[in-house]
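Dear support,

We are seeing what looks like truncated structure output for some complexes. This example has two components. We would appreciate it if you could run it in full and send us the complete token output so we can diff it against ours.
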Amino acid sequence: MYRLAFKNFIRSRSVIIAIALFLLTGIISILIGKQFLRQQQASIEAVTQLQQEQIARNVAHIPDQFGLLMYYLRFAYVNLPDPAASLAIGQQDVNSSIQYLTIRGLEGQRNDTGLYNPYHQLTGNLDLSFVILLLFPLLIIAFNFNVLSQESEHGTWSLVKIQVVQPVSFILMKLSIRLIVVLGLLFLLLLLAVLIIRLPVNERLLAYMAIAALYILFWFAICFVLISLRRSSSISALLLLSTWVLLCLLAPAIINNYLTVRYPVKEAYSTFIKQRDGYHTRWDKNADSTMQAFFRHYPQFRNYTWNSPKFNYMWYYAMQQLGDDESAPDSKAMQHKLKQRLQSAGLVALFFPPMHAQLQFTGIAGTGLEEQLQYQDSTAMFHERIKLHFYPGIFGDSAVTGENWKQHVPQYFHSSHRVNWVLLVSPFILFMLVLGAGGMYLFNIKQ
Amino acid sequence: MKQANIITRHFIKTIIRSRALAAIYLLWLLLVTYAAVTGYQVYITQDTLRQQFQHQARQSWEANPDKHPHRMAHFGTFAFRQKHPLSMFDYGMESYTGNAVFLEAHKQNTVNFSEAGFSTGLLRLGEISPAMLIQVLLPLILFFLGFDTVARQKENGTLKILLCQGAGFRSIIRGNSLGLFVVAFIFLAPVLAAVAVQLLLQHAAPGAAVLQRAAYLLLGNLFFLWIICIIAVCVSAISHNSRAALLKLLGLWLLMTIVLPKTLQAIGSAMYPAPGKIQFDAAVEKDILKIGDSHNPNDLHFKRLKDSVLRANNADSVQQLRFNYGGFQMQEGERMSSEVYNRHLQTLYDVYERQNNVSKYATFIDPLIGVKNMSMALTGTDFTAYRKFQDDAEAYRYKLAQTMNELQQKYISNTTPAKDEHPHSIGKEHWTAFADFTHDFPPVPSLLYQERLTIAAMLAWFILSFFLIHFTAAKATTL
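Here is the complete output from our reference environment:
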């Protein structure tokens, strides 16, 4: 009987059309992901070449003043996207994944954005995570809304009731057929993604797959509850679609507005002004006080002479450093506020599976705010390393040719993200248990 | 006509009595209130903050003591983007555009700190604003309320009775559409009230331009809702039963709000690829170097420039010039690099424009895209408003750098001071004399011109809606 029911379902023309449409949309989304990766790759290649050229040109033009040369040279630090980013582009089209920095003050540079078309950002990317999060539930709703009401409306329900021992098992069977089809579609798309993008099959992909499958199961559980109410096909469709609007459109938007209002990031602006003032006002202050402040931060450079008759870049870079030092509290406060946003979002998302899935998708792909904050932290460390590497050369006015310039190629950030399986899975499992039990209860009392 | 009026009144009466409407309306009121309150708070917070920081930046600028003007050119200043009061109604692309930029000599910085950069992935699922409620949610509600207007009457046979009594199909469709439109207006009313309260509560009284924008905004949204009502009733009339009508309308809604806008933008971006920041900077640098490298002491362009200046002034060395040569050279460098940069930026924006035009033309098939574009333009939250800020900021930056260069030419000597001598400087009164940065929004007529395609498409939809009534009436059957 199962096979017959399966054939009966899959042979329907509208089902085939729906599956074909989803397959097409899915493939387009995979191609969009692939294009995104390619663009990122192109930018990385461009910056590698640019850095090499700029170093070569400036070293040739300024062979005698290390301090002046280092005013111009820039060094790239790249957040190399994981291939999984193509399946959930997340915020990676908003946040720049290349930091191209001089050794001057960090705060004046690290918040620089890329160039983007804001209209494109507003409409967002049609990536696979979007297809799964927003469109798959609609397919599930379209498949399921009349699973029960259709039987009543066509008068076959009374036949079913006398032929099977437990009517609920009949409904569950019908749902499971649809579940197999939807999961089959998902796995087919993921397989295509692996083939088209050449995704490595690793823990990330496994976690991505798990979220997608659990999310689909969650929507089947919702459908089960709502069809158990035994309303007409139209009312069921309305109820299911309203649930979708509420969970996928309104709830995240409401939460997002709340986060924006609750945590305005004014520290960003104050960091911006303070780093400028911290550095620039030093030009008008006593050089000795600047140097003493600098030596308090870096006592290891006390032995260099900064007040020789020749213009000394040591004082200049000390002034730059003080811009960072004076804006450091504000910069920290800004990072702290963003972490608060992140935590609040994660907490609320536990109660809304679409939001939970979205945050987990971007977490796995390394395209969320968390990864961005890590990258920013790591950028500060990179900047510090480069700076400390060059300080002795500048302060001692070493020969420019003494430096091995070949070694200064772009460096890469590697995220330390680990998949937290318990956090990932548990909200879905809990929801499904509650919804499953609720559905069974409703089904039985409505008999 | 009289029959249509009776049908309208009947439609409104039945719908107002239904319990479903009461529940939906209550939820609607809550959502409108939430959107209006959060929109107001964001506006007030950001507006206050940005004005405060703009002021702080100015204070730091004016607090500078006497110094060399080129130090001031590097000291630079900041431009903070002000929000339009109507951005409380529609957030548009504001969350994705930067809010503050550092303006200094020699360098065009990026506009930083967009809200999106501070956001979790949730932003990608959307924001709730009064405009979003009208453009996304209200059509869905109207489809919910309108899908069975005619189809239900078909199902229970009352349609035949109505037709026998002499009510034509046209009156039935027109009457029901009008009824649904009245319902739409009942939903629109609290939004209007909310926006009015928002505008009255904020700092400054709304000026004539704001009110004019608001009036056009209302008109555009009314057009849009009218089109939605007609679509709902016509689909209901051509469907065999209410279930089919509902499914068709839901499909249409999905296509209009979710699928089309995203797909079209993806097509636009794929058709006209735009360079990233690094590629852009590299291209600008390459073009500037082609003309001349001011950092290269042996650069031909700048050597030639110097020779020609010396010749024109009958001087053998820069020391003999009556103006500061360093200031002159930087003035020339700034002009040259700004020209190159602006040319590249214009090319980039042309690419963006071509990408966005794909969506823009699609207004002819999707009225939602049209009302969205128009709403963003009128609320000062579209790309043009952002560009206006960016252009104003760049113009100010250029003026700042060149003013400082002029001051240097005029007041700074060509001889380098010895190490123990006091460095060259000019009085600080020059800093206060240079006016603070301000920016404004494009005037309304230019917006209407910019959105002429959208307006034409919306008008076409409006005219089409009457044809739609006509053709549906001709095609519709009682079964």
